[in-house]
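Fold Annotation — chain and its backbone

Encoding — discrete vocabulary of local shapes
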Amino acid sequence: MTPYAEDPQHLEENITLLCTRHHTEATGAVPMLPDKMVREANDDPANLHAGITAPTLLHYSSEPITIVMGNTTVKGHPGRECWALGVDGNGLLGFRFEDDRYLLSLSLFDQNNRLLLRIDDNELTHRSDAYDVERTGNSLIVRQRRGHILLHLEFTPPTQVKVVSGRLWWNGASILFNRRGMVVREPGTGSVTIMEGTFIAPCGVHVYDGDDDFGAIMRIKAKRFPYPGDGRDFDAVRASLDDLFDTGGRGAGVDSVRTDSQVRPRRPRLS
């Protein structure tokens, strides 16, 4: 890296993103974080060793919660868990309620059931090898490749989370979101558009391919896109990011981020 004072151009190779604490330490009147350590971290970022980013805490609390998915809104009963979206009995997006507060859970997989990002009990983590993860203000955007948004979320603690656009996958089930609505896609030209509305329920939308015993407001039986094997264990895949924590550590040292910056698990099952 060449300091900006020596080369006043905004070149990618001269830019290092630091967390707020390390940025303050590096740029104070008397820097507490030496330039040498920043350079070393830039050359060998800790989060790439760990495989995941350090958890980011989302501040949801005891106030009634709302989940917006396209033009479908699901509100929870006070003091009770609320799952806005489930697939095959597994909660992909929702809140559970414990110790007088709501705890957000979300699982973002690709079409091969590979876990990319997870929110568990209000802690957000994601794989550090994800193509691009952008966090700006209350917005989170995950891109699968250049120009292709896999998921765009807006967080409004302490009461709301919104799926602005994107796609959620699990076991070949594909659910699309945009500002106009929410659609369950099927192979070929098949699709089911979710009706617009606001619902107060413990479970909003459930997509299944077999038996459905979960009592959601909207239950959709949908054909599946191809995916590896005969299906994978939801809880085990969600726990895969914990394995990265266990083997890679929590990234002691400077949180230098060259790609872009992640959650821990519980068991969100619809029952």
Remarks:
- The longest helix spans residues 35-43.
